[in-house]
Design a protein that fits this description.
Elements (H helix, E strand, L loop, with lengths): L3 E4 L15 H20 L7 H4 L3 H13 L4 E5 L6 H10 L8 H4 L4 E5 L4 H11 L6 E7 L5 H14 L9 E6 L4 H9 L2 E5 L12 H9 L4 H14 L9 H14 L4 E7 L4 H15 L7 E4 L10 H6 L4 E7 L25 H19 L3 E6 L4 H22 L7 H13 L6 H11 L9
Parallel strand pairs: 2-3, 2-4, 4-5, 5-6, 7-8, 7-9, 9-10
Antiparallel strand pairs: 1-10
The chain binds 5-phosphoarabinonic acid.
């Protein structure tokens, strides 16, 4: 049984969907990527080497083992964007959906808090929970640059709190650049446990580094299985033809959809456990490809929930979307014949929720075909550490290929950096006086406002 299947039938013209793209266009784009792929593996990007190198796995395991001995009950992760979304994806997929709701559910694992926002309301509430048991709290601070104001300010707050507990230094881990940044400076001075983001790997491509793997190891997730899935996918991805290489097929479809006016890419998992993955992909596609006035707009919808919120738009709205369906459902839940006196419920009674889920997925696919909205499906036979590792690597490679097709650098994010600079300037950071003056001018311009 295959681990992952990519079914592009309904994205092709003729074979299912009149809104689809011509097969010969796919052949042309895929051939170009096939040639590029051969050259790429001779001089791979940093993230492509991660499944093989298992960067810092020994230290990850050592520090995760230490946290077990420390009987950690609260895992607090500070990080944002690429520094948090990978971990959120892994936890969503592999931990109990109500993990934090009770010690019997957690089975001895810590409860976790991923703080990827700085709204003081949330921070204050978590602060209240964590302060009750600081001696069993592990603080993990993740920032590749080590300079991101959101993460650093959170660290400034939480370090002060942690200081109140004995031996707190043993319960703070920093994950950052090996050479530079404020976080590295702090680590050097204060002597915390440190893990690194390898050189040349940006936030959104860092899930297979300590960024995503250390928190996973603390939660007892098998990081070797994640790496193995990625490694096996990387072997699959060495092939040149798109019919043998699903990353080439995926990138070709996403590219041609965008070029044919289907620039809104909806990722729609039919699997609650892949909700985090959809968020992770949304960042990966948006931040990597949104450059030079081009790039698709990724958006997320959850099957079946958003059938009752978004599907109307996808079926009957502007012809600017393609839908990437993710499907995985194996668990069963029988539907009892609870109301035998209602004949019209016969179609549900004694069936299984899994059957209904699949029927809903097919119902969505069929309505999209009928409407001429192209879609394609990524089918996961099972969701586990191995398949998740493979999935991460598949999408990272597809985005790297897309960078080539768009002739842009998929690894930088000048737009994000600009926002960071203005934030720092407004907060009064020395050296950013010019940006501060510019911000003041823009913000003091006359406004059009309506009040109530
Ligand atoms: O993908 C990226 O590079 C960004 O989303 C970063 O991860 C995000 O801005 C956080 O940056 P840092 O990890 O440097 O704190």
């Amino acid at each position: 049984m295959s681990t992952i299947t990519l079914d592009i039938t309904n994205s092709l013209k003729g074979s299912g969907n009149r809104g689809g793209i011509e097969k010969k266009a796919v052949n042309k784009t895929a051939s170009e990527l096939g040639r590029y792929n051969q050259a790429l593996w001779k001089n791979p990007y940093g993230f492509m080497e991660l499944p093989e190198s298992r960067f810092q796995f020994d230290i990850i395991k050592k520090l995760a083992g230490r946290s077990k001995r420390q009987k950690i009950k609260n895992l607090v992760i500070l990080g944002i964007g690429g520094s948090s979304l990978g971990t959120e994806t892994i936890f969503d997929a592999l931990l109990h959906p109500f993990h934090n709701y009770g010690s019997d559910i957690r089975k001895g694992l810590p409860q976790y808090f991923i703080l990827d926002n700085i709204d003081p309301h949330t921070i204050n509430r978590i602060f209240d929970i964590v302060r009750k048991d600081l001696e069993h709290t592990l603080l993990v601070v993740i920032s590749k640059s080590g300079e991101t104001p959101e993460t650093i300010s959170q660290f400034m707050i939480f370090k002060k709190l942690m200081e109140k507990s004995k031996g707190f230094r043993e319960r703070i881990i920093l994950i950052t650049d090996q050479e530079k940044g404020i976080l590295k400076q702090i680590a050097d001075k204060e002597g915390y446990g440190v893990l690194n983001v390898p050189e040349g790997i940006g936030g959104r491509f860092s899930v297979l580094t300590p960024v995503g793997l250390f928190p996973s190891a603390v939660m007892g997730i098998d990081i070797d299985d994640i790496a193995q899935g990625a490694l096996d996918m990387s072997k699959h991805i060495r092939k040149a033809k798109y019919t043998d290489n699903m990353a080439i097929a995926l990138a070709s479809i996403l590219y041609l959809m965008d070029k044919s006016g289907r620039n809104i890419h909806v990722i729609m998992p039919y699997c609650g456990r892949l909700s985090g993955f959809a968020d992770w992909f949304r960042q990966l596609e948006a931040e990597s490809l949104g450059k030079n006035s081009f790039g698709p707009t990724p958006t997320k919808a959850m099957g079946v929930t958003d059938q009752h919120s978004q599907l109307q738009l996808y079926v009957d709205g502007p012809r600017d979307k393609c839908i990437m369906l993710l499907y995985s459902a194996r668990e069963r839940r029988p539907i009892p014949n609870t109301f035998p006196y209602i004949d019209s419920l016969d179609y549900l009674a004694k069936k299984d929720l899994n059957e209904l889920f699949y029927a809903e997925f097919l119902g969505t696919s069929l309505s999209l075909i009928e409407a001429g909205t192209p879609s394609f499906t990524v089918l996961l036979n099972d969701i586990n550490a191995y398949s998740l590792g493979a999935l991460f690597f598949l999408y990272e490679m597809a985005i790297a290929y897309l960078g080539h097709l768009y002739t842009i650098n998929p690894f930088d994010q000048p737009g994000v950096e600009l926002g960071k600079i203005y934030t720092k300037a407004i907060m009064g950071k020395a050296g950013l006086e010019k940006q501060r003056a510019k911000a003041d001018r823009t913000l003091s311009a006359p406004k059009t406002v309506i009040t109530f």
